[in-house]
Amino acid sequence: MPIQVRIPTPLRKLTAESETVTAEGGTIGAILASLDSTYPGLIERICDEQGAVRRFVNIFLNDEDIRFLADKETPVKDGDEISIVPAIAGG
User: Fold this and answer.
1) Main-chain dihedrals φ then ψ at residue 69, nearest 5 degrees
2) Residue ranges of domains in the chain
3) Tens of pLDDT along the chain (91 residues)?
4) Separation CA 72–CA 17 (nearest Å)
5) Which residues are paired to 13 by β-bridges?
6) What fold is seen in the domain 3-86?
7) Going by fewer Cβ within 10 Å, which terminus of the chain is more open, N or C?
8) Distance of alpha carbon 36 from its chain centroid, rounded?
């Protein structure tokens, strides 16, 4: 079943300006791979060369930061919502 993924404004140029897209997969990593096959170039803005989520990008599964769960191995299920949120620098 497709999972809803909320896309932040800076990345919407890669999703034809869609705020929410769907992706398939059983883990956050599989969802990201699914997104990248549908929206080429998206994963390189979210993950570094080693495949880890970039420091300045937060991914939330139902309002929980995946870094406090199982990171990219975090399982997802029908009805879950994933939000990709770029970190905001303050000053």
Assistant:
1) -110, -120
2) 3-86
3) 689 999 999 999 999 999 999 999 999 999 999 999 999 999 999 999 999 999 999 999 999 999 999 999 999 999 999 999 998 766 5
4) 25
5) none
6) Ubiquitin-like (UB roll) (3.10.20)
7) C
8) 10
